[in-house]
Amino acid sequence: MIVIVLLVSLLGFRALGAFGVGRFASWPASAAHALAVMLMMTGTAHFMPGSVTVMPNYDDLVAMVPPFVPFPGLMVLATGVLELLAAIGLIVTRTRWITGLALVPLFVLLLPANIYAAINDVPFAGEPASPLWQRIPEQVLYIGFALWATRSVVRPAVRRHESSAA
């Protein structure tokens, strides 16, 4: 479902670019916005009460956290905040480059939860756990989108301070 949202958003934003909306004039810019849509969806799930059954919720996500991770509830909330902040960071052109790069380690750090959930058959939103062969390529796809999004902006220049020592 999340991959479908990501890809449909990508095509929708790029179609807007083809119709003249300058913000979506390139595939990488459209990828940044599509990833932002996905992160808004996944990020909000971290704050949904367990009574919500139409989408993943806080309880589902806590169940995915491997036992070696301390304070699973806090980790779910923290990663939810990070995902929501990243969504905003991808939309704001000025912060898109650093946000795209920051998402790479975040997606890598989330991989153990996906592996744990797949191996231990942790249900997600009332559905059976998705298999490991599906979860790892999805994380790779998200990393690819994050890196692709960085190509939509000019890399910030490194400022060099030259001393005027004579």
List keywords for this structure.
166 residues, mainly alpha, 6 helices
What is the structure about, briefly put?
With 166 residues, this protein is mainly α. The chain has helices at 2-18, 27-45, 58-64, 72-91, 93-119, 132-150. Helix 4 runs antiparallel to helix 5.
Description of the molecule:
With 166 residues, the chain is mostly helical. The chain is 66% helix and 0% strand. The chain has helices at 2-18, 27-45, 58-64, 72-91, 93-119, 132-150. Helix 2 runs antiparallel to helix 4 (72-91), helix 2 packs across helix 6 and helix 5 (93-119) runs antiparallel to helix 6. The chain has 6 helices and no strands.
Measure the end-to-end span.
63 Å
Instruction: Give a quick account of the main beta sheet: strands, pairing sense, barrel closure.
Output: none
Low-confidence segments, given as residue ranges, are: none
Proportion of residues in extended strands: under 5%
Multimeric state of these chains? single chain
Rg estimate, integer Å: 18 Å
- Count of individual helical segments: 6
Structural class: mainly alpha
Helix percent band = 55-70%
User: Quick check: average pLDDT?
Assistant: 91
Order of SSEs: HHHHHH
Shape: globular
Total beta-strand segments: 0
